[in-house]
Specification:
The protein is α/β, with parallel strands linked by helices. The protein has one domain: Aldolase class I (TIM Barrel, Alpha-Beta Barrel). It is 31% helix and 18% strand. It contains ten helices and 15 strands. The strands form three sheets. The chain has an eight-stranded parallel barrel, surrounded by five helices. The longest helix is centred in the last third of the chain and has 18 residues. The protein binds flavin mononucleotide. Flavin mononucleotide (FMN) binds next to β4 and β13. Flavin mononucleotide binds next to β4 and β13.
Length: 358
């Protein structure tokens, strides 16, 4: 069954700032959740379900509160930085038309299209450049966001380092921002090693390199101590490379999440670069057409975890458009699973999962 796109909770015709200030845009009814039959354990928390929303669409506490009420039990607060950082100019999200599933290692050339009819067909590119409010703003807002989730839910706080922020190098700033995230009340921290929208900056490809990623993970762990669960967000890689990266990071992390968006070149039908500005021909592709790569990532990660006899939580992200996609990712061995692109148009996705599973 297909689900027609009826809502734009993130209004892509507006700027990131307008969405931050006034979103999510929604005035339909909130569903009544089926009775919760069993809880699942995620570190110290007993949760109502293993499903959530990854770092990105939930811009601040208003967004966290709304989607937690819609039944997404593990919302992630969009990636923050130690210093204020502007968004790339809008548009930040456009619909694209990959004919086929995007393959690992491929850098597809994509054309923008009008909005598709159904959630199941939705593939977008998003390109924000990881904007961040000043730390004083997000630190205060994180406390409000934490307080807005209900029993059986927990919020994860995503953060990343900024090379040169107040004179700190990239590694130092990752650790510094981790300390701020913990101080702000982040219960579970996740760091982003895999954003393709940084216009050539170093931070987007950290996940491909075992040495630099593990050096940062170690610095973060030393900074936050052992009491706060800490996850890294990475992208898919060929099996042996992924195994090397996982092996190098495993001693320092409690969880691994993936995948992030995949880089693609996006043009308008007339051949012009779709998103305005230098370095933005390439941007991150997400939604339906990255489903196979995401599923492949989880299958590999499960195998690697076993082969290394390692102990970490696995979070499946990418191309989850339906309740069945959540189930597929969890059945493949993910402990928790999250959807970003689909929920921007379909806030009832969690409810459909709960009705199916509970
Ligand atoms: C609007 C939007 C903003 C995003 N911003 C971030 C971010 O700040 N940090 C991050 O780690 N990933 C970010 N992502 C990537 C998502 O967390 C996710 O990895 C990716 O979209 C794949 O999932 P999907 O196919 O369900 O969209 C963003 C995605 C979207 C759609």
């Amino acid at each position: 069954m297909q689900h027609p796109i009826k809502y734009d909770l993130y209004d892509a015709s507006k700027s990131y700032e307008d969405n931050y200030a006034d979103g999510p845009f929604f005035n339909a009814s909130k569903p009544k959740r089926p009775a919760i039959k069993g809880k699942m354990k995620l570190w110290n928390w007993e949760l109502n379900s293993p499903i959530g929303i990854p770092a990105g669409p939930l811009l601040n506490s208003n967004w966290i509160k709304f989607y937690a009420e819609m039944g997404f039990d593990i919302p992630v607060y969009k990636t923050v930085r130690s210093v204020a950082h502007p968004s790339h100019p809008s548009p930040n999200c456009v619909y694209v038309n990959p004919e086929n599933q995007i393959k690992l290692g491929e850098k597809p050339h994509l054309i923008t299209i009008h909005k598709p009819q159904n959630v199941e067909e939705l593939t977008i590119t998003n390109s924000f450049g990881v904007p961040s409010k000043p730390s004083s703003v997000w630190m205060e807002d994180v406390a409000i966001a934490n307080a807005s989730v209900s029993e059986g839910q927990v919020m994860i706080l995503s953060f990343m380092g900024t090379d040169g922020a107040d004179g700190r190098d990239l590694v130092s700033d990752y650790a510094y921002t981790a300390a701020m995230a913990k101080e702000a009340g982040g219960k579970i921290l996740e760091t982003n090693y895999s954003c393709p929208n940084l216009c050539g900056g170093k931070a987007g490809a950290i996940y491909q390199d075992a040495d630099s990623s593990s050096q940062i993970s170690k610095a973060i762990r030393e900074e936050i101590g052992n009491s706060t669960p800490f996850m890294i967000k990475i992208g898919n890689l060929p099996y042996e490379q992924l195994k090397t990266v996982v092996k190098a990071n495993a001693p320092f992390v409690d969880g691994i999440s993936g995948i992030n968006t995949m880089p693609g070149e996006v043009r308008n039908p007339n051949g012009q670069q779709a998103l305005p500005g230098e370095g933005r021909l390439t941007s991150g592709i997400c939604g339906a057409k990255i489903k196979d790569v995401s599923q492949d990532f989880i299958e590999k990660l499960v195998r690697i975890k076993k082969e290394l006899n390692a102990d970490f939580t696995i979070c499946g992200v990418g191309g989850i458009m339906t309740a069945e996609d959540f189930v597929e990712r969890l059945n493949a061995g993910a402990d928790i699973a999250m959807s970003a692109t689909a929920i921007m148009c379909d806030p009832y996705l969690a409810q459909r999962y709960h009705e199916k599973e509970q």
